Structure formats: structure tokens, C-alpha cells
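Bug report

Summary: C-alpha cells for Peptide chain release factor 3 differ between web form and batch submission.
Environment: batch mode, default settings.
Steps: 1) Submit the sequence below via batch. 2) Compare with the web form result.

Sequence submitted:
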Amino acid sequence: MTPTAHNSRRTFAIISHPDAGKTTLTEKLLLTGGAIHLAGEVKARGAARRARSDWMKIEQQRGISVTSSVMTFERDGITFNLLDTPGHEDFSEDTYRTLTAVDSAIMVIDAAKGIEPQTRKLFEVCRLRSVPIITFVNKVDREGRPVFELLDEIADMLALDVSPQAYPVGMGGEFQGVLDFATGRVARPEGPSKEFKGKREADVELPEKVAENVELAQIGYPEFDLDAYRNGDLTPVYFGSALKNFGVTELIEAIAEFAPPPRPQPAGEDTVGPERDEVTGFIFKVQANMDPNHRDRIAFMRQVSGTFKRGMKLTPSGLGKPIAIHSPILFFAQDRELADTAEAGDIIGIPNHGTLRVGDTLSETNKVRFTGLPNFAPEILRRVQLRDPTKTKQLRKALDDLSEEGVIQVFYPEIGAQWIVGVVGQLQLDVLVSRLSAEYKVEAALEAAPFATARWVSGDAKALDQFESFNRANLAKDRDGDLVFMAKSPWDVGYQEEKNPELKFSATKER
């Protein structure tokens, strides 16, 4: 690899509301990139495996992806690392953290529905980190909203400049293809299924109304500006149909041409750029039991700098002593492949037995600490009711494992024996109960907890002691032993903040 090998990396995620077409688009990107050979492999039902990320029982029952996985493919000298984010309504911290590991994102919008709540929520996470966004308006072969209405909604709701790069020639029953502004060619539907099969026509005479709208779109919106896009201020907008294969090639080409190569990552006051010689990275996800037959645990590391070589020793910040990484995994579509080398921007799976945790920095010298991978205050809290009291030890192990993965947070109250779990979205509770039973053979029920939210408490030791002596019934420790105030209501948080100005009550905890 050349010293600038990282420049050929594009690490990105697809964000969308449920049913906007993310799974289909993922499949078509992998198909176009040559990573899978048969349409339907990502979402095959029945005997065929579903997506690599759809391995859990609950996912098979609900037909959704709950976990995030990584798919890598190469095209025209560019290595694409596509990180899959859960696309259901109750998404977890896993989704947030995955977005800390990407350099850009594709935002998929349904042409009939426009910006939906979850798209907006995910967009805001991207905005926090100035992640550049390419917008793909999907399903234009069906009846949808007027193009200008969609463009203006993106601009207004997300406070972004929009720069259309394509235009649908008709929608729904009048759909005649997609005009690409860069080439002036129209991708045409073919055959009874009206799919795109590679036929692009130049010098097409457009219907009068469409020709007028195309001119308005090109004059009325900002021209594409690479710097504005990479700063997260402008989004180029493409139109197409993932199902019928319109706009997919243009999207891959846009990512290759415009999306940034690996970006520097925050490390306290400093930033670490991809050109640094030292191998560094951070763990943004831990996945246990990917193969139920071998209770393996894989830590996903986003490589930030250097050229990684198999067998290399790296020191995790949480451990303090070096570990040799003999069997790193790269994720090529649905197969795991042993990696010999990896560059900045790549995602490496590191098999381990619980030594690596979300938020850990790995480096050769142990002098770097990446920041910006927060835990979020849970929005739902539940008590765990164990059906068989002899399995207390197994339950503790399971809760610690699952909190390490970021599926849940676990709190051990200072008073009382019942442990409390906290989650960001309701679905995580179903995942918890399902996995306790399937993987740990622990039957448990969840019951209402007397608390509404939690805050991490820090500050002067004397003030903390005083606070603890007055509020012991409302205090717990998290799995790291950090003090947590369990609040009965948001008002309760405000009251304690006012009463204890020397203490900090935090809704996020940096790892």
C-alpha cells in the first residue's frame, strides 16, 4: 500500500426512516459494487440467510435489522466500507455510535413522504459531527410529492443548502426515467418491469413541463460546492428507485468522487489524522454471540491512522497492556475474511473475550485517547425481575455483557437488590428479554421502575459525599462504578441541579 492508501477509502452509512428503502438500496449498492451476486441476498427469506446483520431471533421474527454490521466492497480502485445502521423506530445507542465511525452518510427519503421523524433524528446526530450528507430521493417510479416541494422541505427542515444533481422525468404512472445533470443523459426504464438495465440516452427531448422544471432546478438552487458539502452545509440530491436500479451507479460514483476520505478524529484537545504513522483506532461497537455455536465476541474498531498488519500488538486504553491481534476480521458482504493489512478508514473486527469495550482507544504507544463516543441518558428504565433466583450470577454476567455491547445500560442501586436497566428505545427491551432467554438461558421479566431518567453525577468529593448521604435511595452505580442519580422526573433533575450547584448532573457520559 502507498502512504496515501487511506485516500482510496470511503467509510459511510445509510440513514433513513423505516420503509424508505434502505435495505434495498444497501443490496443494490453491494450488487453494483460486485460484493454480492444475486439481488435478494440481503433480504432473502426462508432457508437463505438474511442480511449479515439479521442474525438474531428477534430480527427474524420482526423482519428488521437490530444490530449494525459492516460491508466492504471495491470498485474502480476505491474501497467502500458501508456501515449498516438499524432502521427501525426504536433505535439504540448502537445507531448513534455507528455514526461516530463514518466519514459521510447517504440520507434516503421516500418520494411520497419526504423528511420523516427518524431521518431527522439521525440527521441531527450527523450534524453534531459535521458528517457530510448525500441525499437520495427514492421510489420516484411511484406516485410522489412534487420535486420542488421535496427539495424545499429538505432545505427548510434540515437548514441545509440543496443542490439537485438529477431530475425524475415524470413520477408514478408517468415515470419515463431519470435525467443526470452531469452527463445530460436519461436512464430509461426497460421491459415489463420497467427497470433500469443500463440504457442511457443522450440528447433526449424532454416533455415541455419537465424541461422547464429542470431549468428551474438548475438555476434556482445552489451549484454543487465540494467544500460546502464536506463541511456539512450542503447536500447534493439524487433521484432514483433502488428497487428498479435507477440512480444507484450515480450514487456510488458520487461517493467515490465527492465523499471525504478518512477524516481526522477528535482526541481531547488534539485531533489524529489518517496520515499519522502510528496505528490508532477506537471501538465503536461490541457484538457478542455473532455465531451462537461459538460464544464469540467481536469488537468493531474504526481505524483512524497508520497501516495495520495482522499479528500487530496494540494497547487498549481500558486495559493498559498490549494485546496481539492475530485474527482480525474484515467484513466482505456476507462473509468474514481474515485481514492481513488495513488502512485508516477501514473497520476491523477483533475477536476477544470481553477485554475490549465500546469507547476504548487502541494504539501502538498508548498515548492517544479518542473522545466523542458518549453514553446517552436512558429514556426508559425498568427493573429486572428474575424468574429463577438461583440464576442471579448468570443474570449479572448477561447484563454486563449486554451493557458492554451498548444494547442496554445497567444500574446497580445503592439500596435494594433489584437491578435496573436503561434503554434509549423501547425495542431494546424486547431485544434484552429475547437474548437473555436465547443466549444466556435466563428467564426474566421487566417491570416498571420508580424512575423516569438518570444522570451521571460528578464534582467535588466533599459535596458528593454530602449529596450521597441525603439521596442514597435515589442513587446507583453503573457497570463502571460511576455514580448515577436516578430521577423520578425531569423536575427532580432540575431541583437537584439548583440545590447542588457545585455538582454536575450529566445526560451523557464520554467513554
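Above is the batch result. After comparison, the two runs are identical; trailing whitespace caused the diff. Residues 37-56, 62-68 have pLDDT under 50 and may be disordered. The chain has three domains: 5-69+87-261, 266-363, 374-510.
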